[in-house]
Specification:
It contains six helices and nine strands, in the order αββββββαβββαααα. Strands 1-2-3-7-9 form a five-stranded mixed β-sheet, sandwiched between helices. Strands 6-5-4-8 form a four-stranded mixed β-sheet.
């Protein structure tokens, strides 16, 4: 292997490591809020891999289980200005210096997650609400409005929004249902790391454009900042 290819490979691996670390920090921040600031009794399960019919998996950052329903949380630890619609395949992250990067529409991403959850648990999709949570340093310039089925917010409003749902929505699950669902979802956590590695390879195979350093979709990860925590 040529020296330039070696450095290119190392740079890509380092970039993926940084992006993964920042994503983990975002999930950790959301999880802390749920643990210490959420209203009522709830269960949270992080990083689950829901099996699909084709042998693949759907990775979900956080699932909140409560009597009022399930809340599928997709964490986006991004900064900058965020633009996107409910139906566009990609959203745009823009910075003051004029640079722009694209990332896959998180609304569509979480819809996919919710369908997988619904099939796996045999519960109606109407019992599952989608939450998209961005970092504190981003500005949501033009994104879909919040509805009964979808909530998009920066971190500082997340706990207010989910507490409102927990306190006002009618119950759809009994305590026994909550216990059974929690047990089923907890079994989908990957303690060995094997499923996570297989899922990453699945994503690379399904989205080969992300491997191309020359494509916009392949570069947006390098612009992430630690917007949930400041060092």
């Amino acid at each position: 292997m040529q020296l330039t290819n070696i450095f290119s490979t190392l740079d890509e691996q380092y970039r993926q490591f940084k992006c993964g670390l920042k994503g983990d920090m975002g999930e950790f921040a959301v999880n802390l809020l749920l643990k210490y600031s959420a209203a009522g009794k709830l269960k949270t399960i992080r990083n689950i891999y829901v099996p699909l019919n084709d042998g693949k998996t759907s990775e979900i950052d956080i699932v909140v289980v409560h009597n009022t329903g399930l809340y599928a949380v997709e964490c986006k630890n991004y900064s900058g200005w965020i633009f996107g619609s409910a139906d566009n395949r990609y959203w745009t992250q823009t910075f003051a210096n004029g640079k722009k990067y694209q990332f896959y529409n998180p609304v569509l991403q979480n819809k996919y997650h919710i369908k997988a959850l619904s099939r796996y648990l045999a519960v109606n999709e109407s019992c599952i609400k989608s939450y998209i949570v961005f970092g504190t340093e981003c500005t949501l310039k033009k994104v879909p409005e919040n509805t009964d089925d979808l909530c998009i917010s920066a971190l500082e409003m997340f706990i207010t929004n989910i507490n409102h749902d927990i306190e006002t929505k009618p119950p759809v699950f009994s305590d026994e249902n909550v216990a059974v669902i929690t047990e089923k979802l907890s079994a989908l956590r990957d303690s060995s790391g094997k499923t996570k590695a297989e899922h990453k390879q699945q994503v690379r195979d399904d989205h080969p454009e992300k491997r191309s350093s020359g494509s916009t979709a392949g570069k947006y990860g390098s612009s992430f900042t630690s917007s949930f925590f400041k060092f």
